[in-house]
TrEMBL record:
The keyword Methyltransferase applies. It comes from the Bacteria. This is Class I SAM-dependent methyltransferase. GO terms for biological process: methylation. The keyword Membrane does not apply. PANTHER family: TRANS-ACONITATE 2-METHYLTRANSFERASE (PTHR43861:SF1), TRANS-ACONITATE 2-METHYLTRANSFERASE-RELATED (PTHR43861). One of its GO terms (molecular function) is methyltransferase activity. InterPro entries: Methyltransf_25, SAM-dependent_MTases_sf. Keywords: Methyltransferase, Transferase.
Length: 240
């Protein structure tokens, strides 16, 4: 899926994302282990990946989008940036921790694609290595991505974001229209659509077990004690 326009405006539109919260959660989960090698899948423009480099010795960021990776490369030359497909990759390296954050996994539309990703992650982890990922909850899909329209209006950029349920269960079309200010005072319009799907929590649990993951834990909204499904973001943690 291309991010021709979203990549251009991504950092501006996500500057209020609680990126440090992802780092804090990972720190809580890895207090008894040293992170020598970390792989951040679906790294986007690399903002969160750069924060992970503060708690991991060697960090690799991987994303399917050329545009996103080019943006990420400008943020750090100490991180290894790679273009790659999370459903089918071979890096000839194993990692202590692999993360798939910011609902990146929700861009996989089929259960087979999710299963393929879990398999490739498993084979890239060291023994006792840890996988952490987060996805949209079913609750969020039904209450916030169900024909809602959102507007983000800034001095030099306006985003009109329309959500429409897709044909697949718990899926959504994000129809994005950007109006960006030009130097001459005029505005340019760009349109882009993104498709996401989430799965019910028991299905993620089952897939992880089939692949071979152990010590599977889940929680919500960055709080490892939160077990309320009426939340926005579902986290999973599992070990090889």
């Amino acid at each position: 899926m291309a991010y021709q326009y979203l990549s251009e405006f991504y950092d501006t539109l996500t500057e209020d994302q609680p990126y440090q919260d992802w780092v804090n959660v990972l720190e809580q989960l890895t207090t008894s282990m040293q992170i020598n090698n970390l792989l951040d899948i679906g790294c986007g423009t690399g903002t969160l990946t750069c924060l992970f480099s503060k708690i991991a010795k060697n960090v690799t960021g991987m994303d399917l989008s050329d545009e996103m990776i080019e943006k990420a490369k400008l943020k750090s030359n100490k991180i290894t940036w790679l273009k790659g497909d999370m459903t089918n990759f071979n890096l000839n390296q194993k990692f202590d921790v692999i993360t798939i954050c910011c609902d990146s996994l929700n861009y996989l539309i089929t259960e087979d694609a999710v299963m393929n990703t879990f398999n490739h992650v498993y084979h890239h982890l060291n023994d006792h290595g840890l996988l952490m990922f987060d996805v949209h909850t079913a609750h969020k899909m039904e209450t916030q991505f169900n024909h809602q329209t959102y507007i983000d209006d800034r001095d030099d950029l306006t985003l009109l974001w329309q959500t429409t349920p897709g044909d697949d269960p718990l899926s959504v079309w994000h129809d994005l229209t950007f109006f960006s200010l030009n130097e001459d005072g005029t505005y340019s319009r760009s349109d882009e659509s993104q498709y996401q799907r989430t799965l019910e929590k028991p299905l993620y649990d089952e897939m992880l077990k089939i692949v071979g993951f152990k010590n599977i834990q889940s929680f919500y909204d960055f709080d490892i004690t939160n077990q309320s499904s009426h939340s926005d973001r579902l986290f999973f943690v599992a070990t090889k």
